[in-house]
Amino acid sequence: MVAFDTxxxxxxxxxxxxxxxxxxxxxxxxxxxxxxxxxxxxxHVAADKNDVLTVNFGATAFAHTPPAGFSPF
Length: 73
Hints:
Distance between the termini: 13 Å
Radius of gyration: 13 Å
Largest sheet: 4 strands, antiparallel
Helix content: under 10%
């Protein structure tokens, strides 16, 4: 999971409905997150030649609801 806030210039990462950071991360409240300079942020996905990735940009239903105040797109 990834949540990106352009107002706060922060990004959060998580797995299976839980945000990384031992419960101290909450995109809905702006708590935690990693500060990123907006003019140098380029989203991408990297994989090794044997990796299999599934990326959902909203064409199908998400497994987890986006945080309050965040758009799924």
